[in-house]
Amino acid sequence: MAAESLAQTPALGSRAEVVVVGAGLAGLACAQRLRRRGVNVVVLEAGDAVGGRVRTDTINGFLCDRGFQLINPAYPEVRRVLDLPALRLQSFPAAIVVATGTGRRTLADPRRAPTMLPQVFGSLLRGGIGSLREQIAFSRWAFRTTSRRPSNFLTEPDIGWGQALTDQGIDGELRHRVIEPFLAGVLGERDGTTSHRFTQLLVRSFLRGSPAVPWFGMQAVPDQLAAGLTDLHLGVTVESVKPGLVRTTDREITADCVVVATDPSTATRLLQLPPVQVRPLTTYWHVSPDTPTRSGAIHVDGDDRGPVVNTLVISNRARSYSPDDRSLIATTVLGLGDQSTERAVLAQLEQIYGQSTRWWELMRRNVIPQALTSMPVPLQPRLPVALADGLVVTGDHRDTASSQGALVSGRRAADAVLADLGLPAMPREPMRA
């Protein structure tokens, strides 16, 4: 938040109708919904800005999100809650570039990425990826995933996505060189154990939408959600919660309801909930004086020659992320990377892009221990948010591991609070065009 906004924030008192602990997407969505109902809401955030895991750092004019993150305007709750035109979204092509020892091949959706057809045809001339049998099997799976209603996925028996693809004949070169590296970046794992139900929901959103980043970075999303919250306090660490009481490092606040909207491990500790499995990721942000590729598509290494699961020149499509003609490259690896990992990353990026990385400069290394919430089998997309005695918990770990899940969870938490307060429920906001 801007300094002038903080200067207008009232002093933190000892009494509130509702206290929301955590100013990530779920907490902010909950607080805004309660504010519109006229409820007195106090939001406490331990960090120095709102957003939780959705943050952006400006380094020498470059916008480096904390991890490679995208917002998908196809998500229904995103269209209900956010003013998308105000975010000035910069979208990425519906395509993926697969780098191997024999060159780079582009796979794209011709309906949504028509300008990439020359690259696609060139790739086809060099030979397709995977057998015809596997390509047909994948096309059937993708068509079924995009054409069905999301609620239909939840009625099927659930297994890991790896076994599900094997059962459907997707088990060859296409899978190992394209599908697995792509899913590794969005699921945070390569062992195929994530729920097939959740994987289908996620892939469906990618195939139906155009993932993008805001002009001012992903930080613009929580900043927009926080607008109008007049009792939001940053740098406040909550030590414990119990029904009707929040204890910070220097005071106690009584409340009719308490909403815990923190990261999964903190929520587990504060509320003595069962532990939530999370998946760590590390993102390296490099600056190159030259453009290693003109493509704005995600690149994966089809030969699996190192730790990189995906990489892209983000400034090719998100021009605001670079202050000049230099290129900003975002590269993600699984787990907690360090300096030795970066050396392996740079060596692999030379193979992926086919250019030297000698003059690349590391702007930021984001090590994110709780980057993604695990979605194991069987998928449980609607865990209870109302606990007992006015305690409510929210976050994507109560729904699905996505911005959609975080925002839906925030709405559900707000509705639970309204019920506890004896106030009428609010209708959902209409989806914007």
Summarize the structure in short.
The chain is α/β, with parallel strands linked by helices and 433 residues long. Helix content is 32%, strand content 24%.
Can you walk through the features of this model?
Helix content is 32%, strand content 24%. By secondary structure, it is of the alpha/beta class. The strands form five sheets. Strands 1, 2, 9, 10, 11, 12 and 18 form a seven-stranded mixed beta sheet that branches. The chain has a four-stranded antiparallel beta sheet with strand order 15-16-13-17, sandwiched between helices. Strands 7-6-14 form a three-stranded mixed beta sheet. A hairpin with a 2-residue loop joins strand 10 and strand 11. The chain is globular. Mean pLDDT is 92; it is low at 1-7 and 116-126.
Question: Which labels suit this protein?
Answer:
14 helices; alpha/beta; 7-stranded mixed β-sheet; about 425 residues; single chain; disordered N terminus; 18 strands; about 30% helix; 4-stranded antiparallel β-sheet
Label the structural class: alpha/beta
Gyration radius, rounded:
22 Å
Report the count of strand segments.
18
Oligomer: single chain
The low-pLDDT segments are 1-7, 116-126
Please render the helix and strand layout as text:
Blueprint: H1 3-7, E1 15-21, H2 25-36, E2 41-45, E3 56-59, E4 62-65, H3 76-81, H4 84-87, E5 90-91, E6 95-100, E7 103-108, H5 117-125, H6 132-147, H7 150-153, H8 161-167, H9 173-187, H10 196-208, E8 212-213, H11 220-226, E9 232-234, E10 238-242, E11 245-248, E12 252-260, H12 264-271, E13 278-288, E14 298-301, E15 308-313, E16 327-334, H13 339-353, E17 361-373, E18 391-393, H14 403-421
